Amino acid sequence: MKETVFSEYEVYRQGFIFPGTDDLETDNVVVKCIGSSEEELEVKTVQKKCRGSVSKERTKGTGNGTLKISLHCPYELFHRLYGMTTEGLADGVWAYGADCLHPVVGVTQLIQDEDGNVKYKAYPNCTVKSGMARKTENGADEVAEIELEISIMPDDNDRGMYEALESELTDETVADQWMTAFTPALVKKKTA
Which of 14, 30, 71, 176 yields a CA-CA distance of 20 to 30 A from 148? Predict the structure, then answer.
């Protein structure tokens, strides 16, 4: 087995895929201005005890987790992620409240290491779990990013996260569609 070292250095593309959209290229959004990304995937540990001592322990993933992202979010994307509404309001007015359900969304990323090598990541079944939190500081030297806390949930295959190094992807379709059209079916092994 070849040993590959890949240190995640920079998220340079962040995608948001909205299931059920008609036009994947225009309905799904890729953001280029990302400050940081932090993932934490959950595990479940089972123990076997013998006479009061742990004799065996096994840990496996659950498919659940949390993704924390800071970025400069396009205005329309912000509205969609929080399920904001214009219903019954004057043109150009958006509202957020009890009737705003945060949608399920797929999240994709292109990450580089310090040498410019690329890794693709995908979280196909997510929803924003944090409430709106924005800070405006008059006279600041830097424009504040927004922070999103996103729940990662298992997909139909009980998986919450997928990743691949660009150098190991042999199917160009997978690489071409990863950011705006990722689904678990896209990365399923093709049988002859």
Answer: 176
Tokens of 25: 């290229």
Q: Each residue of 163-175: pLDDT tens digit?
A: 999 999 888 889 9
CA 147, 44, 59, 50 torsion-angle sign? positive
Does residue 61 fall inside a structural domain? yes
CATH number of the domain where residue 25 is located: 2.30.110
Scanning the structure block, which residue is given the tokens 């379709």? 173
pTM: 0.89
Cβ-based neighbours of 47, under 8 Å, separated by 6 or more: 54, 56, 57
189: confidence class by pLDDT, cuts 50, 70, 90:
confident
Torsion angles phi and psi, residue 185, rounded to 5:
-65, -30
| Number of C-beta neighbours around residue 102 at 10 A | 18
Pairing label, strands 105-112, 53-71: unpaired
